[in-house]
Please model this.
Amino acid sequence: MTVRISDDAVAIACGADEVAAAFIAAGVAVERVSSWGMQWLEPLVDIDGVGYGPVSADQVADIMNGKAPSLGRIEDHSFIASQTRLTFARAGKTRPLSLDDYYATEGWLGLAKAGEMGAEATIATVITSGLRGRGGAGFPAGIKWQTVARAHNDQKYIVCNADEGDSATFADRMVMEGDPFMLIEGMAIAGFAVGANKGYVYIRSEYPHAIAKMEAAIKLSAHLVAPFVVEVRVGAGAYVCGEETSLLNSLEGKRGEVRAKPPLPALEGLFGKPTAVNNVLTLAAVPWILTHGGDAYAAFGAGRSKGTMPVQIAGNVRHGGLYEVAFGITLGQLVNDIGGGTASGRPVRCVQVGGPLGAYIPPAQFHLPLDYEAFAAADALVGHAGITVFDDTVDMAQMARFAMEFCAIESCGKCTPCRLGSTRGVETIDQIIAGKNVEANLALLADLSETMKFGSLCAMGGFTPYPVMSAIKHFPEDFR
Amino acid sequence: MASIADILTAHKDREGPLLPILHDVQKAFGHVNEDAMREIAGALNLTRAEVYGVVSFYHDFRKEAEARPVLKLCRAEACKARGVEALVPIAESQNRIKVEAIYCLGLCAVGPSAMVGDKVYARLDGAKFKTILEAM
Model:
């Protein structure tokens, strides 16, 4: 009998350590593995492939006696069976820090393939795959690599953006905690392709488990990626450092203020050297692409959004978790069919896609396919594909206010529209909520939003108007 | 306990060492105060203003130690959707624990969530939240 329990932060926060201890106390060996991503079932206990969950320590005896109801085979669970897991192929199955497990599941094949085909062909493969930046901007990863590769400099860097600060996103965290070697392999491939011998992973300080796993994995695999060297750097609680130029300043030991572009980081990035800044999910997709080929990856997806996206279904949702699927699935399928509607059992009022800078979307638009261009056309963004579900008790004026408040708290202060606009935005929404000059203040807020959208240096101030204006547009009754 | 000089020595070969140094100083002393900033600035050949600018930019660094135990409560959108705001009055009804807002622990499908040190909690309700506060 093999008992597997995740040691992912969600599982631990839900009591997985206590459950594992109860099995060990009962004389059963426990393997701590990555999470399947079915977070409403955590702590999920996997006994020879059959699942039980959510389990508390006092249920362990019943499970061992066969008295507890099981969920059946985990791999056959509809939430898992309906996914296309490329990046999360190992989720739930392997021990995060086991090199043996990683080798046994196609580990390091991508890096070997890159070495065989050479740097140029590696970049060509990533271009063929159609892989776009998974951090939100959706820029073609292969093109970025090509720019760095063609820059002439004796020192280049790979920077992995693991500053996953958007609410409703946790896929980066799951990669780092559950499959850290995959990310290291992706970074090593990127380094080989562009000619960089040093890589930094910038992880937010709110993720202590991910930091520990990455540091351990880097030590265990150093000889396998040499001469490429990977180092973890820990953020310090600034949301804006998820913006790539702010992140670079932070890595250099400066205030995390945004830089004006150009110059592009690909040409003048970390310490002024050519730097490929890629999101965790972008780099994590690379080993699969090298192993299976660019065409195989591009066969998934829709339009110009190729491959799969690890969607994160969160908030007030019955079946929340990590759902990797080819682009093109509709929002309604994700929220209602996969997510099962709200956890509270009340009607879904709206979802926010793309974190605190993403638009609020009403059920009337649930036909939207997950696709960068389709979302942009609807004044929304895919972002890092985190979906926050809200039920009908949500007050959208309060959520709009929070969007401005969050921007005021987290603005780096470099540009005026973001630094001052956010605070003026909070004040204006407070006037509206108090019922003072509502129409005039709504007009003022729309004007302010335009200024922030077009006048801000980066997405912090530039995208904060999306949640604000979408809330007003789709839920005007909450403002009047 | 490591001295600031020890911490500076440990990071002397790093590129861009300021944040790792500040993290270690914050961890060792519970704060990064004026004296520490002066010593760090001297060692890195930076002005005190530059170091102060960095310390004051990031939420993680405190210029004075926090005497009370700290609980970080996530108040981002996904935890709001799951009812974290109902826990705020409980936090405000006591003064023994400092309850700080934090924006996202990445536990967004099992919120409301909180963190004490490196320990994470999820699926908080009023009773569970009170129990955690009382145990601190």
About this structure: Chain B has two domains: 4-57, 70-135. The helical segments of chain B are 4-10, 18-29, 34-44, 48-57, 77-81, 88-92, 126-135. Residues 4-57 of chain B form one domain.
